[in-house]
Design brief:
Largest sheet: 3 strands, antiparallel
Distance between the termini: 98 Å
Strand order of the largest sheet: 1-3-2
Number of helices: 4
Order of helices and strands: EHHEEHH
Radius of gyration: 26 Å
Strand content: 5-15%
Helix content: 25-40%
Shape: elongated
Structural class: alpha+beta
Length: 104
């Protein structure tokens, strides 16, 4: 029986958790990239998913890995926070707060 020789990095595979660690993102992010067609997984079994290292390196070389780490649509400035739009809250004064009733 012939042994299959590896042709180098191109034939190596990387798992989903390892790729998520490498790209500093969550595994769910990788799943979204699969649905978008940006990543092409190899489904070895129901729970075993691998990616070709050649594809990973090509994405990193093209700079697309930066998009995987933080998509442009979700970039925010450090001080920005989402706020609800609507009427501003009014502060209660001490006189308008109910006082405890003294029974006796």
């Amino acid at each position: 029986m012939k042994a299959i020789k590896s042709k180098g990095v191109d034939d190596d595979l990387i798992g989903r958790p390892a790729l998520a660690y490498r790209w500093k993102c969550h595994t769910e992010t990788l799943k979204r990239r699969e649905k978008q067609g940006l990543l092409h997984p190899l489904q070895l079994s129901t729970r075993m998913v691998r990616y070709r290292m050649s594809e990973v390196l090509a994405i990193e070389h093209d700079g697309s890995a930066a998009q995987v780490q933080q998509p442009a649509s979700s970039k925010r400035s450090p001080g920005s926070q989402s706020m609800k739009k609507g009427k501003p809250r009014q502060k209660r004064s001490a006189a308008s707060q109910p006082s405890p009733a003294a029974d006796g």
